Amino acid sequence: MARSPFSPAFWRSPLRGPWFTSVLGVVLLGGITVLFVTGLVSYAAYNPDLSPVNDQTPDKGILGFYLFAWPTHPVWLYRLTQGVHVTLGITLIPVLLAKLWSVVPRLFTLPPARSVAHALERISLLLLVGGGLFEFTTGVLNVQLDYVFPGSFYPLHFYGAWVFFTAFVVHAALKVPAAVRNLRRAQEAGEARETGELVSPSPAEPTVSRRGALGLVGGASLLLFGTTAGQSFDGPLRETAVLAPHGGPEPGSGPGGFQINKTAGYAGISAAETSEEAWRLVVTGRTGTVRLSRADLLRLPLHSSALPIACVEGWATSDQWWRGVRLRDLAELVGHGDPSDVLVESLQRHGAFRRAALRANQVADPRSLLALQVNGEDLTPDHGYPARVIVPAAPGVLNTKWVARMAFGEL
Amino acid sequence: MRRRPAIGSPFTVLLLVCSFALTGYVGVRLLVGDWFGVSLWFVGAALLHDLVLLPLYTVADRAVVTVFQAAGHRDLVGYARVPAALSGLLLLVWFPLISGQMADRDRSVTGLCGDRFLARWLLITAVLFGGSALLLVLRLRRAAKQRPPAVH
């Protein structure tokens, strides 16, 4: 038996071959394209071009070429796109690992480069494999709040995605024709013995068929999907997400028992500053400044909307029944009859999104509220008492909690 | 006379140079902060996977096959391999949660009980191996029934 991994005979698994690699490659071609697109969509959902407070990658240059005003219809839009992004990413991990396993003999190819093109392609493959693992690792760590990576998640995951996807497109352009050819040939030839670079010249006796191995990969994906997807729903479905960060039982019971992104304790919000006597909402606009107590707000026309909370980490709640003052009514109060953009500030002193900007279309939507109550009761401290923003289809962090100040037309 | 190095497909070369230019444009933005740390993570992720994780699980799999082979049951290796692979994968993906290192942060940030994941992973592992054992017993019993009865 060959002792060196640089010898083709060192690699003895009878599973490796063009068919196995091509099947996994085609799955990743579709899957990673969806991940990239939903990732770009998530960046657009933050409205980063509206205000610097919404933008974690201000030096993006042309990479923001596609940005657009994020809509408020349908209300579950971000819940869907980001749920797909995170859940699909986790589901694809076994496929990615199997794909890398299937081509690992290529890493040890001798001579290291047959031509200039081959040398460049191998550099690109380092960016592909390193970039892919970097993206999956940072994503998986971020949803578990384990911020061990070297920098802020947003720029690392955003710029890393562009490096990865660039190498991915090149790889697809060079390999998809061969993959399709391999699959066609396999369909015609049936289970006939394969030939090609990846096929071991001295295969060991098989312990599992290629279809069996593919079944294991698919089963592993299904297991990850089944233990994660439920965190995008409330109730019994969330209970099925047994290993997901926001799976299992809700944090509490009753009207305010649904999922919390950051608790009041973690955000450093004290009961003293949110009390009826201390707290005042400051609204500024064209006609000056208005200070409103919570009782003042409750005397304004109140409206209800059923809206979900959807987090960049991929979890979401089902629709909650919010009640409060329409954002466009608050805008009108300070002279913005034609709703304008607004800068919302929280009582929170730290944290990237203690200030967030909303676009005019979000302010104008009649379902956008400064909510005072949820599911028929006053907001709990963890859900933003005395008042919080809730906007249809917006990422969770733009639904500012513990609102202290709203500045219309100030962006 | 020295042989000139081969160029290879001109299309491939052009495509790759184009991609490297775009990667350079993105790369300077990616590396603007902790350039060393980010490069280390990029290259380290590939090396750690190819030279540590993959050989580790390959050796572990070989060991399982060897044990079954020694017992004369090479055909039954899947009954150990499948639950072990699934359980190991869950541990790999959710290690920060399962190891409990995030438990305190989890509780203060989300209000959820953070140390619930180790117990759940152990239970899933028990179900996977238990289910596999059950399937194995059923298969062995079916095989025993199909065998002609011994003649006395």
UniProtKB/TrEMBL annotation, chain A:
Molecular function per GO: oxidoreductase activity
Name used for this protein in its record: Oxidoreductase molybdopterin-binding domain-containing protein
Pfam families named among the record's database cross-references: Oxidored_molyb
Keywords, comma-separated and alphabetical: Membrane, Transmembrane, Transmembrane helix
Start and end residues of each Oxidoreductase molybdopterin-binding domain: 274-408
Bilayer-spanning residue ranges: 20-46, 84-104, 125-144, 156-174
From TrEMBL, chain B:
Keyword Transmembrane helix: yes
Keywords, ordered alphabetically: Lipoprotein, Membrane, Transmembrane, Transmembrane helix
TM annotation in the entry: 12-32, 38-57, 78-98, 118-138
UniProt protein name: Lipoprotein
UniProt source species: Streptomyces bingchenggensis (strain BCW-1)
Lineage: Bacteria, Bacillati, Actinomycetota, Actinomycetes, Kitasatosporales
